[in-house]
Design brief:
Layout: E1 7-14, H1 18-26, H2 28-35, E2 37-39, E3 48-53, E4 62-71, E5 75-80, E6 97-106, E7 109-117, H3 124-151
């Protein structure tokens, strides 16, 4: 049996100032555009926000994030139930994973590192599929963020 790693990490350089990247990640109106979701409310520690996917092939999928930390222009984190795509399943008792965005100025722009941890706590029946989906998902989302901050 192949072991599934506990975390996903992606580091991307964005040709945009750290303040601009921070706004794109932590302002609900901007986040919605590049992440491909509809949402109400704003990001703030403790906020529990429902998001509805607008990305083709996933449109209408609902999920929740709970904001953990916001350290201006350096760290933004939330918890969620990754891969919760079956509307007939209650994932509320399943452990969450932690998503962290780390920002650091450098090389004429901003380094963005996204780390998602906690896959070892996801039930074995879903773990491999959820991990695979999120590896691809973070590749997609980091490219989307990079394109977005290059336009605004």
């Amino acid at each position: 049996m192949t072991s599934i790693p506990n975390s996903i990490e992606r580091k991307v350089h964005m040709r945009a100032p750290q303040s601009k990247v921070w706004r794109a990640i932590t302002t609900a109106a901007e986040f919605s555009k590049w992440f491909g979701v509809e949402m109400e409310g704003e990001f703030e520690p403790g906020a529990h926000l429902q998001m509805i996917t607008t990305i083709e092939g996933y449109a209408g999928m609902k999920f929740w994030v709970t904001v953990e930390r916001m350290e201006p222009e350096t760290l933004f984190s939330w918890r969620w139930h990754p891969g919760a795509v079956d509307p007939n399943v209650d994932y509320s008792e399943e452990p969450t994973t932690l998503v962290e965005f780390h920002l650091q100025s450098g090389d004429g722009g901003t380094w963005v590192t996204v780390v998602e941890t906690g896959f070892d706590q996801i039930p074995l029946s879903r773990r491999a599929a959820v991990y695979k989906d999120n590896v691809g998902g973070w590749e997609y989302q980091m490219k989307s963020l990079s394109r977005y901050v290059g336009k605004i």
